[in-house]
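Make up an example, fold above all:
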Amino acid sequence: MFTFQGRGKSVTCNGQTRRDFLQVGTLGALGLSLPHLFAAKAHGAVKPDHDDRSCIMIFNLGAPSQLDLWDMKPDAPAEVRGPFKPIGTTNPDLQISEILPQHAKIADKFSLVRSVHHTGAAVHDAGWQMMQTGRLFSGGVNTPHIGSVVSFERGRKTDLPAFAVLPQLMGRGGGNMPNGQAGGFLGKAHDPFALNADPSQENFKVPDLLPPIEIDSSRLERRRRIRDLVDQTVATFEASESADLLGSNFESAFRLMTSPKAREAFDLTKEPQKVRERYGMNRFGQCCLLSRRLIENGVRFVTINTFLTVFDEITWDIHGSKPFTSIEGMKNIVAPLYDQGYSALIEDLDQRGLLDSTLVCNLAEFGRTPRVNPAGGRDHWPQCFTCGFAGGGVQGGRIVGASDPIGAVPADRPVQPADVAATIFHSLGFDVHKALPGPGGRPFPIVDSGHAPIHELF
């Protein structure tokens, strides 16, 4: 961290001047503990006719059971098929679980890929990495999140960031590995803007959006001129690449904090109460609603973490015994809030004419074991699971790939995480053969060779 001091006369107890004080990195006096996000510029890899495409990635942290939700096996033995029955949908070729009745009503608007699999370890954070970056962390190379690549290549449209995560970054996964929700080798400038708040709370505010109460507008404007102090004090530092990034981050953070449009985008009280209730007055539902507002206001990529950790929280992680979730907990708590929030988001985007330009993808780190375990739950299973896609050029009502009779392995059209990443990039108009400036300045492909978009979806 660099510390710069001006010629102010007021001195603190440790001898530092109070006026014109800036700590590069934290920017704490301005309330700019934004860890990321801003020095993004487009580099020409995006097709012009897709430049307005956006993406909402719903990451189903904990990993839903494909056999109990989207890829049911009603003719399999009881220990495979589980306790739930399939129901018909608006798509005559698709049946899904009875615990997702709202999904059934919009099944003509989303498509499922039932043959996703990966070879990573059956631990949460390994799957988080692979599904959000297309690669497993290896050799010290931390691949950026797909949204970070979008931030790097396109930059932001407005004062709002290009890439945001709601409600906050993932917590622990048990493997002590990077979770994939960062800028990786592209740098912290392309980390996501993390909301770090629960939008379902009555007193919801965005911690990083506004300056501290004690800093009035005149003081805030004066602190904006702190860059002059840096110019005067460290000319050699200012000539460096790091300082150029600092300047961009500072100006962008200031724009975000003082932008009426940014405050408006995050203000859920602007929504009619019946709209908020349609999404569900819970954290996930209100994050879905907020994601729609952010997309409307120029954010290019939003990731929604349905849950924050697999510990001490009811999630999709249905091992069946405490401290994890039971199948009953999934049925009575997790599935209803998810069913409501997701269906509301798809319907709302469609009614507002935004679905065609907004890809909504539903991902998870893996699936669940083909057989129910002795505790009545299902364990981790990366060998086969289901992901969903809607909007962004995806044709609704399609089923791509198939699993074997017990949902254990792909039986047709195997799909890997890199193929999922390629599909998202393709929807957004990227050349999937494009190379990024990787570690050491070496070209680093957006998607590894041998992988391609799931063209059957489009």
